[in-house]
Q: What sequence folds into this?
């Protein structure tokens, strides 16, 4: 086939589009049958990786051949989009969002300054306001920024908090979070110029939530020592266990101690669309800023995160900047310039990939899907709680269930043997290639997690997962 020119004609565009669409539809249709983890041998995987390190050729190639190569690369992976992905926090990737993104990239409108494409900027703002006000319950005057993910959202929140509370004198600023906070919280603080030694780990209560009394004591002790506490970061749905920190109490503490209150709801935030989620995330509306990750619990493609803030002016004050080359740009109207709210200037209209699915499917479709995840997680909890060989330490707040092999007795040696047995159990479960689970450490114990987030995971796959887990747990001689 003749290589396609940089600017293909209508027939060529249509042909190229058809080839890509066919691939994608085939892949998507077959997701349920695909292995949950890569089926390649380590040797085959290494060869494939090596082949993809080659530089591009001078003369173009055949699209069909290239797409077949892409499929090989995509197959050499954890199947993050499939129904069996119960590891980490799944990102399932809506088809409608992919189509929106294709349109978006082909039209290629500028997203850094609102006046360049004002209606599309308004479309993006509508998505942000929906997340800030309808999803999180923040008041008028709230707003935010679409980011590439939760880490970037937390980074901009930290910069805003720092600017607002510390000005330019960073040296004595201190940050408070727990051992279960996502590592992006400490990373954001370091990137924002806060020394690692000023990032405090607040103890947690036995149910793995931040202890507000301990947080209060630490803040007061630091202030007494001449430091400047400026940021308290709670988690609404920890990555490890899906646990929600006591948001009301922590909001009260932040207010009394006059520190910025950020909530990392990258995983948990969108569950507020459901009745159970609204109850469990009560207090989220008191935050100064909130991290959300549409690429997790709104099923968007990776690269879709959000920061919402109570007071958009605080975010703006920390991030604004301009240059004389921008003097021809009209001042923005009611829609803020996203380039003045975060570190990036040029970027795509990020809101489009959320706007189209939200308008096409309606909010209820997302609410129902998230409700289903909560049901499935409760079912996992109840079923695994009935397996004598397993220990299920807590009821899930959201859609993550943790479990591990039950130790023979309370001794340290028995706990170590159980940890080893749990490690082998995870391998055996994942070796089925129907589901992928992951592990973490909870209170020094090796712990497995089932995290139900994909919009493609339904009761049939969870029933199969429970059969596999139960059978493998029973095959074990208990530690
Ligand atoms: C995933 C996650 C993050 C990090 O978000 P990225 O989108 O991966 O950058 C932060 N916090 C929590 C609670 C998360 O689950």
A:
């Amino acid at each position: 086939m003749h290589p396609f020119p940089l600017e293909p004609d209508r027939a060529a565009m249509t042909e190229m589009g058809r080839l890509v669409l066919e691939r994608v539809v085939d892949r998507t249709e077959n997701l349920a049958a695909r292995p949950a983890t890569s089926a390649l041998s380590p040797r085959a995987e290494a060869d494939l990786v090596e082949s993809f390190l080659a530089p591009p050729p001078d003369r173009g190639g055949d699209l069909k051949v290239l797409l077949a190569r892409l499929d090989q690369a995509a197959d050499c992976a954890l199947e993050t989009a499939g129904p069996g992905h119960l590891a980490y926090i799944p990102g399932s990737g809506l088809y409608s969002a992919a189509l929106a993104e294709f349109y978006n990239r082909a039209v290629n409108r500028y997203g850094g300054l609102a006046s360049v494409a004002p209606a599309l900027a308004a479309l993006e703002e509508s998505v942000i306001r929906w997340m800030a006000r309808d999803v999180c319950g923040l008041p008028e005057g709230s707003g935010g920024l679409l980011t590439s993910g939760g880490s970037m959202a937390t980074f901009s929140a930290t910069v805003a908090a720092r600017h607002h509370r510390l000005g330019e004198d960073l040296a004595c600023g201190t940050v408070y979070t727990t051992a279960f906070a996502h590592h992006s919280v400490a990373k954001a603080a370091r990137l924002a110029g806060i020394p690692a030694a000023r990032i405090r780990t607040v103890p947690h209560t036995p149910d793995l939530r931040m202890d507000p009394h301990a947080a209060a004591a630490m803040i007061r002790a630091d202030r007494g020592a001449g430091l400047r506490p400026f940021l308290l970061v709670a988690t609404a749905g920890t990555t490890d266990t899906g646990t929600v920190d006591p948001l009301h109490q922590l909001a009260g503490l932040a207010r009394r101690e006059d520190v910025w209150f950020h909530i990392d709801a990258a995983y948990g935030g969108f569950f507020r669309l459901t009745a159970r989620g609204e109850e469990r995330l009560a207090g989220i509306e008191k935050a100064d800023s909130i991290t959300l990750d549409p690429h997790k619990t709104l099923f968007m493609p990776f690269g879709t995160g959000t920061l919402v803030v109570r007071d958009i002016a605080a975010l703006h004050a920390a991030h604004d900047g301009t240059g004389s080359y921008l003097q021809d740009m009209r001042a923005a109207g009611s829609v803020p310039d996203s380039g003045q709210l975060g570190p990036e200037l040029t970027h795509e209209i990020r809101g489009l990939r959320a706007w189209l699915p939200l308008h096409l499917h309606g909010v209820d479709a997302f609410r129902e899907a998230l409700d289903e995840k909560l049901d499935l997680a409760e079912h996992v909890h109840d079923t695994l709680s009935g397996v004598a060989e397993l220990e299920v330490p807590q009821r899930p707040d959201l859609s993550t269930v943790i479990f591990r092999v039950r130790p023979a007795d309370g001794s340290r040696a028995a706990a170590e043997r159980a940890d080893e047995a749990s490690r082998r159990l995870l391998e055996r479960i994942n070796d089925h290639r129907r589901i992928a689970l992951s592990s973490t450490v909870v209170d020094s114990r090796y712990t497995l997690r089932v995290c139900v987030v994909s919009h493609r995971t339904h009761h049939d796959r969870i029933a199969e997962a429970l059969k596999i887990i139960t059978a493998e747990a029973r095959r074990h001689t208990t530690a």
Notes: The chain has a mean pLDDT of 96. The CA atoms of residues 25 and 95 lie 9 Å apart. The two ends are 61 Å apart (CA to CA). Residues 89, 149-151, 182, 184, 235, 239, 264, 266-267, 293, 305 surround pyridoxal-5'-phosphate (CB under 6 Å).
